[in-house]
């Protein structure tokens, strides 16, 4: 038990600094800051694996998702309209969607010449942290 108290004391000593990064997100400003931070961390670990940064990515991802669940309504409409909305909302271009295919494939999807397949739906759902159902058209 004493060891636990020592660990808690160590955490409390650094908490004023850490809590500026790792705490519940309440405002859009905090949210945007967390998004920028997680994007930078993801870029860093893509270049070189780092378990500490990966752990921070997990924590920030959880905090971001919590904020989004409480504050951001999931888009609805036709799948391509939703995709276009999400691209605009995240300030992305079709060049940023390499996970769903080549530039030509992405262009065909956005121009409604090709439908999304299951792999692409899963990748987009993960990328934008939304339900896969927003990318599935039900007639």
Indicate the topology.
Layout lengths: L1 H17 L9 H20 L3 H21 L7 H11 L13 H8 L7 H11 L11
Helix pairs in contact: 2-3
Describe the protein's architecture and organization.
Helix 2 (28-47) runs antiparallel to helix 3. This protein folds into two domains: 2-71, no CATH class; 79-135, 434 Repressor (Amino-terminal Domain) (Orthogonal Bundle). 63% of the residues lie in helices and 0% in strands. It has 139 residues and is mainly α.
Approximate helicity band: 55-70%
Specify the structural class.
mainly alpha
In round numbers, the mean pLDDT is 88
Multimer state: single chain
> What is the H/E order?
HHHHHH
Total E-strand runs: 0
Could you say how many structural domains there are in total? 2
Our estimate of the beta-strand percent is: under 5%
Q: Uncertain spans, ≥5 residues at pLDDT below 50?
A: none
Descriptive terms for the model:
434 Repressor (Amino-terminal Domain), 63% helix, mainly alpha, 6 helices, 2 domains, 139 residues
């Amino acid at each position: 038990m004493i060891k636990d108290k020592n660990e808690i004391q160590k955490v409390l000593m650094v908490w004023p600094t850490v809590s500026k990064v790792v705490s519940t997100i309440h405002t859009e400003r905090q949210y945007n800051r967390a998004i920028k931070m997680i994007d930078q961390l993801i870029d860093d670990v893509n270049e070189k694996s780092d378990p500490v940064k990966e752990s921070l990515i997990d924590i920030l991802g959880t905090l971001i998702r919590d904020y989004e669940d409480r504050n951001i309504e999931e888009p609805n409409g036709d799948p391509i309209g939703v995709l276009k909305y999400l691209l605009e909302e995240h300030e992305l271009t079709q060049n940023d969607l390499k996970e769903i295919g080549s530039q030509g494939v992405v262009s065909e999807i956005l121009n409604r010449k090709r439908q999304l397949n299951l792999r692409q739906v899963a990748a987009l759902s993960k990328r934008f942290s939304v339900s896969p159902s927003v990318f599935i058209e039900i007639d």
